[in-house]
Specification:
Blueprint (H helix, E strand, L loop, with lengths): L2 H23 L5 H5 L14 H29 L7 H9 L44
Helix pairs in contact: 1-3
Length: about 140
């Protein structure tokens, strides 16, 4: 993950959390009827209608930033290099001696079995089984 991708992701998460907080603070549309009959809305810090405008505009700005960071993350996600397969790396290292490059791999010794081979099984016992006894009838 690149640094730019990390920064955009952190901003995206923070904006999302702030949006949720602002949306939960706002009043619903049904609360306006109660405010008209003197429910104390005129004594707020922002005035009777000031808080609704401030919170609505803040939510709209955060939603626009959230949208932009979503597009940015989608763009940065498509710019990554595709992961390489282990088989592709093995094929490249097999072609390396032809190019004059050293091949780095596991070192085999006389005490180890070659890679990919199983150790030999012990020999099977050669003792013969006794012949079954004839049935005797009484």
């Amino acid at each position: 993950m690149t640094t730019l991708n990390t920064v955009v992701l952190v901003v995206h998460v923070l904006v999302g959390v702030m949006m949720v907080g602002l949306i939960l603070i706002q009043r619903g549309k049904g609360a306006d009827a109660g405010a008209a009959f003197g429910s104390g809305a005129s004594g707020t810090v922002f005035g009777a209608r000031g808080s609704a405008n401030f919170l609505s505009r803040s939510t709209a700005i955060l939603a626009a930033i959230f949208f932009c960071t979503s597009l940015g993350l989608a763009y940065l996600g498509t710019q990554r290099e595709a992961p390489t397969s282990v088989l592709d790396v093995a094929a490249d290292s097999a072609a390396a001696p032809e190019q004059g490059l050293p091949v780095v791999g596991p070192q085999e010794t006389d005490t180890q079995a070659p890679t990919g081979m199983l150790p030999a099984l012990p020999p099977a016992p050669t003792a013969e089984l006794p012949a079954p006894a004839d049935k005797q009838t009484d």
